[in-house]
Amino acid sequence: GDSVTQMEGPVTLSEEAFLTINCTYTATGYPSLFWYVQYPGEGLQLLLKATKADDKGSNKGFEATYRKETTSFHLEKGSVQVSDSAVYFCAPFDTGRRALTFGSGTRLQVQP
Amino acid sequence: GAVVSQHPSRVICKSGTSVKIECRSLDFQATTMFWYRQFPKQSLMLMATSNEGSKATYEQGVEKDKFLINHASLTLSTLTVTSAHPEDSSFYICSARLRKETQYFGPGTRLLVL
User: Fold this and answer.
1) Using an 8 Å Cβ cutoff, are B93 and B105 in contact?
2) Which of A34, A35, B60, B86 has CB atoms 3.0–4.6 Å from A47's, for a disulfide?
3) A37, A97, A100: best mutation site toward chain B, by most B Cβ within 10 Å?
4) Contact criterion met (CB < 8 Å) for A44 and B102
5) In chain B, what residues touch A43 (CB-CB under 8 Å)?
6) pLDDT in tens, B29-50
7) pLDDT at site A29
8) Max CA-CA distance within chain B?
9) What is the pLDDT of residues B49-79, one digit of tens each?
10) Nearest CA of chain A to the CA of B74: how many Å?
11) Long-range own/partner contacts, residues A47-51 (CB < 8 A, 24 or more apart)
């Protein structure tokens, strides 16, 4: 099955800092790629997705580009806010199991 | 739109008892739902795929007799943890597939087995 490697957290940033959370994956073929976010005490929410190579998913100031050559889908945001503090999960869609495979999650803590 | 609910949100039970967790898609029909388990500060582990009107597909290492899944309608899937033991204590999360590969997640159920 697919596997996902995310950078270990926690990542601690000051407000308005630039954010990058690295994600690489192994998969059969070219799966759709997702980022989910889990705010404290809440369930997972879809943040953004990309369905084919070179696609850029974006939402709430976050962006991630589907890089087929490097099998990566790094999450970026130019200026983080305290409200962005959460756990972020990278997840390719496993076409064999027809289900998402989740990375270990990266906890982001943004300080005022 | 695309709201998924879970009930209960938290449950405490004695060892040896069974616990049922419900997962509902509130504003859409889902032929496929998924059950995950999340350990503290760890990723989500897929336990099984629940298909409406047919048997669930369990991941390797997940005991089907321990974790009974029933997907009786297009908006409801249930997970029953039978004869629960302390090692079954965890955070159980369901999701429902709306279209293609996009899944919407419930808020999770925290199970504590004493």
Assistant:
1) yes
2) A35
3) A100
4) no
5) 4, 6, 93, 105-108
6) 888 999 999 887 778 899 999 9
7) 83
8) 40
9) 998 888 899 999 999 999 999 988 899 999 9
10) 18
11) A47/A75, A47/A88, A49/B102
